[in-house]
Amino acid sequence: MEQFYATQHKVFKNVSKTNIFLFIISLQIISDMDAEEMASSREESEDLTCCSVCFLRFDMVERKPKFLPCSHTFCLSCLKLMAIDHDGKMIDCPVCRKPFSIASVEILPNNMYALQIIKMSKIMTNVQKLMFTPRWCLTCKGVGKESCFNSHSTISLAQDGEELQRKIQDSEKNLNDALEKRAKIQIHHNAVLNSLKEAKYSAKKEAEENTQHTFTLMTALESIDKLKNGKQDVPEAREKIEAIFREAENELQSASQLMFQYEDQTEIRVWIEKAPSSGKTCFLSPKLPACNSDLVKSTETRRICPSEKKEKIMCCALNPVRPVLVCGLESGKLCFFQEVHDCDFEPFSDWKGTIVETLSTKLVSFIAWDLEGTSFAIGFVEGLVQVWNRNCENIFGLQNHTMTVSSISWNHNKEALDLFLTTSIDMSVAVWSATLETVVQQFKFQSEVCDTVWVSADSFVCFNEDNIFDMHQIGKDKPIRTFRDLNGTLIRLCFRGRLASSSDDGCIKIWSLEEDKPVRQYSTDSPVYCIDWIPINEKDADTGDNAGCQQLLASGLENGLVHIWDVSGISDSPLETLKGHTEPVNIVYFSCCGKLLATLSDRNNTLIVWSTKSWEKVYETIINEGSDSREPYYLSWNINKVLATANGGREVTVAEFE
Fold first, then answer.
1. Which has more pLDDT, 13 or 81?
2. How far apart are CA 611 and CA 594, in angstroms?
3. When comparing pLDDT for 121 and 415, which is higher?
4. Which regions of 499-590 does DSSP assign to beta strands (E)?
5. Which of 106, 229, 298, 617 is the most exposed place for a label (fewest CB within 10 A)?
6. Residue 373 DSSP label
7. Quick one: average pLDDT of 231-239?
8. Which of 550, 547, 652, 646 is CA-nearest to residue 602?
9. pTM attached to this predicted model
10. Over the stretch 381-407, which tens digit does the pLDDT of each residue have?
11. Which residues make Cβ contacts (< 8 Å) with residue 636, sequence separation at least 6?
């Protein structure tokens, strides 16, 4: 028996030295084996690597393969059980039934062949997986080739599919977060620009006041010097000094009266009143005493959304022909206010409010109705655009922009009422068809587009941050006209039969669509922030009403003035100058009938409505008084002389005029 053990140890020692070479050869021929050959070899290897008693795989711990003197191999665990039956000194081979006496099963030689085959089988399995499992090469960014496995970083498409899906979802989430942060940054950027404009305006105003005070003091000093030099008699000098003091006292008295008026206005409280017909709560605010309410009767109502969270109203739009108001909320939802009994005289305080879900959970950035009031388009901060009908039903939605939709404009040409433009801060403008429910064409620009207006059924005019002023036509990639002779930076465009532009150099220019230079120009002494044409009303033109037959253009200036220009006349001076704002005027907006003009200063949230017949102030209020919102203002008229406005506060203000 000892001689047999010695022979077995010698044989296995020699085998182990050559075994590595055999493995290397095996690895080289694996690539030449087809799937059936590899499967067959795996089955044969399993016969050599499993115990024929317990049918479990050999290992290097509890189930070491052990040789019996008859050369049959069994695992250490089974041999121990066999030895227990014979008091640990005798074993019968389960295959050939030969009995063998042993001192201990532990000293039986290991079957190194079986162990090496196990190792080789693992290598074959790994190589097979490597060869037959598709892998993605991170370096080539495509399905991995044979040359990629050794030199490039690869991942298994079969095993890591879920991981790839998770990474895609994370990427989409990061993209949405980035878009949302970009929108917030844009809002803060606009706030900083507004603050800089305010600082510039305040510094200019203080400089003018200091100049006036300096002039007054210099006059007084000159009088004193003349008195000292004996060039002027005492009574005359005394009269001049007393006149200066009287003027100063008058100025002080005027300032005191203004202060008392302001204190009286700040003491006006907004109270809560129950509407008797509907039972819902409205916020009503009395008008400021400066309004001539005897000319036009007005009613102001402030409403909040009927939601538990009392969400912020980011924008609003009135249906131009029906009593429906749509508000966009910060959560991506819509709030519809509409008449309950479908009558044209029901006050806004009785309109029913309803919250409606949209396809997005992101902030609503813009809402606009079409000319006939049958559909409206919505823009979101992530670039999504949806179209709804007047029955609060979603027609379609597409995301053709990658960033915030900053404006929406419907075509007013009767041949193309279903077309609308969307402008985004991703430096693109898209033309949509509500009938086809798709994007007709998308135009790309080198910088963000600041303003766009339709000028025909298939053409629009726009300018971007680079102050490039072009006209584009659907179906053509390049501009069909570039307008020139721009001295200042453009701020606003407006078109209603004629194209007008305003700029920071105080100029208002009237353009012909057939020429690249302005045909008329008006000059002011302050930057012009906004312009609007009065609607052409044929009925008023027939009756000889001035506001209806004249081609009037309103402009809001940085110094708080509002100029009315008669473009149909020959004078280069304003027809009227409206004085009511003390801060820059950011919005001028004529009502649908042309009877009223709304002007707004977002610096102190003051909204004023003027009669275009007498140019008298008929309404004035403070929007979202006490709110710190820096969101842009949205004003909207309908044909019943109802005006709605919102700017990111928790309430929408509606004024109804009779």
1. 81
2. 9
3. 415
4. 499-503, 507-511, 518-523, 528-533, 552-557, 561-566, 576-579, 587-590
5. 229
6. S
7. 61
8. 646
9. 0.57
10. 999 999 999 888 899 999 999 999 999
11. 316, 317, 318, 325, 643, 644, 645
